[in-house]
Design a protein that fits this description.
- The chain is of the alpha+beta class.
- Helices cover 48% and strands 17% of the residues.
- The chain has a four-stranded antiparallel β-sheet.
- α4 packs across α5.
């Protein structure tokens, strides 16, 4: 038990009985530490994990904790039955609502319509920035004057930024090391 390989589990057998349930003990390593797991066999949630070096010192405390878990079984049974009833009620309510309309259906349709308008406006702005061979003479239908003005403003600002970049990039690259030709230059043959 002292030298278990990492991330392994070894069944150490039955330690005794509490409340009519056998106590199964398992050693498990995780992240380089060995832990001892004592659990009441067949009882969900009735396990105690203790580091190996504290297992011997935790005799009475460990047994007392397991006894408390065994004593709490009637309450666990009552709570589980109550949750089962609540779950069955929820399932019945959901089954009854299956054919109903979606509560926020109108809001969803409005949001979808807004999303389509925004996507159309963005597509129109993209077409203006990357014009095709044929340009329509009239703005796309469904675009308001505010959207057209916004699109034109974005195009103007983009053109200014491009012009500024071209002006600043003329000449040599300031960060380029001497004697190194730019990447865009073709090799000499």
């Amino acid at each position: 038990m002292r030298y278990l390989p990492p991330n392994t589990e070894r069944n150490l057998g039955e330690l005794g009985h509490v409340g009519g349930f056998p106590i199964d003990v398992t050693a498990r390593t995780s992240l380089g530490r060995v832990h001892i797991i004592a659990e009441l066999s067949g009882v969900p949630g009735a396990s105690i994990t203790v580091p190996r070096d504290q297992f011997v010192d935790a005799r009475v405390g460990l047994v007392r904790q397991l006894e408390n878990r065994a004593a709490s079984l009637p309450k666990l049974l009552t709570d589980t039955q109550q949750k089962r009833v609540e779950t069955a009620t929820t399932i019945t309510e959901v089954d009854a609502r299956i054919g109903d309309q979606f509560k926020h259906g109108d809001e969803l349709r409005e949001a979808h319509t807004r999303q389509v308008r925004v996507a159309t406006a963005l597509a129109a702005m993209a077409d203006d920035q990357n014009p095709r061979t044929e340009t329509p003479s009239e703005p796309a239908t469904g675009i308001s004057d505010e959207q057209v003005a916004g699109r034109d403003r974005v195009k103007e600002l983009t053109d200014r930024a491009r012009a500024r970049t071209v002006t600043e990039d003329r000449g040599t690259d300031r960060d380029q090391a001497p004697g190194v030709r730019p990447v865009s230059a073709r090799p000499q043959v």
